């Protein structure tokens, strides 16, 4: 495979000095383990160790790196074009890397009780904040009496948002998703367990990963994919498959939230008070739009809840970083004193 087929672009090439390529090889991360990573290069699959001080937690599937093939070592991690992350559960003061350098995030749900606008909006906020184009895929369309109603509800969650109903088992999934899966393009599948992500992945890649049936009593599924990995799509693109996420925290994604709720965030700039909570404050442009029927009150409730959670988690992250910075200064000072 050529670098272009792997997704290499000018954005990454601009970070590399010509002299570096005489000794180092550009490669794309295909898998991450506890103490090593696997990467795809023009010469094939590489198994790479990390330098002391570098953690695999800093590396995501889809990352571009420079590899020292002779020493089987990851030499440099290149800047990401996009980074899909989520806030850790219970706001532990960090964000978890999910995938890197995505062009499109396929957000999967299904045409049954799994369909949840609030959860979809969380994924949309994370996708927008990552810089990836979100597309909602609604599976099990063949089992729904009115799949079009689910598509309409999904499209209402964003301006110009693409939402498609799929029969993942028997439909022409590869043809339907071709606009986003061409040569050099990278997509990821995200969503709850049991909605058909593995089935879609198999259709795109020609693979045969195991699938799990959905539980009929609550429309929820069992985990199938247990680790993130990258796979080649028959049309030439790349698919990053991810485990089903039971917890989907947000942290430091105010831009993504604003992009997910543009009709609210744009009106908020016209409120009388800069710190308006959009409850009962005088001169609230958002509440005026709700009263006039221009904004869905349920959507406003979800917006405020997501924004509040993000603000709290963002504060926690800032505090954690501040503590780490202070601790680093203490350690540095102690080392200096010991040398005296």
Q: What this model shows, in words?
A:
The chain has helices at 3-6, 10-13, 117-130, 147-155, 173-176, 197-205, 254-260, 262-268, 285-291, 297-339; strands at 25-32, 36-41, 44-49, 64-68, 73-77, 83-87, 95-100, 104-110, 133-139, 162-165, 186-191, 229-232, 238-241. By secondary structure, the protein is an alpha/beta fold. A hairpin with a 3-residue loop joins β1 and β2. It has a six-stranded mixed sheet, with helices on both faces. α3 packs across α7 and α7 (254-260) packs across α8 (262-268). The chain has three domains: 3-77, Beta Barrel (OB fold (Dihydrolipoamide Acetyltransferase, E2P)); 102-241, P-loop containing nucleotide triphosphate hydrolases (Rossmann fold, 3-Layer(aba) Sandwich); 254-325, Probable gtpase engc, domain 3 (Ribonucleotide Reductase Protein R1, domain 1), CATH 1.10.40. The chain contains ten helices and 13 strands. It is globular and about 65 Å long. It is 32% helix and 21% strand.
Number of domains: 3
Order of helices and strands: HHEEEEEEEEHEHEHEHEEHHHH
- Helix share, percent: 25-40%
Overall morphology? globular
Q: CATH homologous superfamily of the largest domain?
A: P-loop containing nucleotide triphosphate hydrolases
Strands of the largest sheet, in order across it? 10-9-8-11-13-12
The counted number of beta strands is 13
DSSP summary: helix tally: 10
CATH topology-level fold name of the largest domain: Rossmann fold
Under the CATH scheme, the architecture of the largest domain is 3-Layer(aba) Sandwich
Low-pLDDT residue spans: 208-226
CATH class of the largest domain: Alpha Beta
| Class derived from helix and strand content | alpha/beta
Q: Let me know the largest β-sheet.
A: 6 strands, mixed
Binned strand content: 15-25%
Distance between the termini: 55 Å
Rounded mean pLDDT is 83
């Amino acid at each position: 495979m050529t670098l272009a087929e792997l997704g290499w672009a000018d954005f990454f090439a601009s970070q590399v000095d010509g002299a570096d390529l005489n000794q180092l090889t550009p490669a794309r991360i295909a898998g991450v383990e506890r103490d090593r990573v696997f990467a795809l290069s023009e010469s094939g699959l590489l198994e790479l160790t990390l330098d002391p001080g570098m953690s695999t937690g800093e590396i995501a599937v889809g990352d571009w790196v420079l590899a020292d093939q002779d020493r089987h070592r990851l030499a440099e991690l290149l800047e990401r074009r996009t980074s899909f992350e989520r806030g850790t559960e219970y706001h532990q003061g960090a964000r978890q890397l999910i995938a890197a350098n995505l062009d499109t995030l396929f957000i999967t749900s299904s045409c049954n009780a799994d369909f949840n606008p609030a959860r979809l909006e969380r994924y949309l906020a994370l996708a927008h904040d990552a810089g990836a184009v979100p597309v909602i895929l609604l599976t099990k369309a063949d089992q729904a009496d009115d799949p079009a109603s689910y598509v309409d509800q999904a499209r209402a969650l964003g301006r110009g948002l693409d939402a498609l109903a799929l029969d993942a088992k028997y439909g022409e999934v590869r043809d339907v998703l071709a606009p986003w899966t061409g040569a050099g393009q990278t997509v990821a599948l995200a969503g709850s367990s049991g909605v058909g992500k593995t089935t879609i992945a198999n259709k795109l890649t020609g693979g045969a990963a195991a699938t799990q049936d959905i539980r009929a009593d609550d429309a929820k599924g069992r985990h199938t994919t247990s680790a993130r990995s990258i796979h080649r799509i028959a049309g030439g693109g790349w698919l990053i498959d991810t485990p089903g996420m039971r917890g989907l925290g947000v942290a430091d994604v105010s831009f993504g939230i604003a992009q997910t709720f543009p009709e609210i965030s744009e009106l908020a700039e016209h409120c009388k008070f800069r710190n308006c909570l959009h409850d009962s404050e005088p001169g609230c442009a958002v509440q005026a739009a709700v009263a006039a029927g221009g904004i869905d009150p349920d959507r406003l409730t979800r917006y405020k809840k997501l924004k509040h959670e993000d603000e709290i988690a963002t504060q926690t992250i800032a505090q954690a970083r501040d503590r780490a910075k202070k601790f680093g200064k203490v350690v540095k000072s102690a080392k200096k004193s010991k040398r005296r």
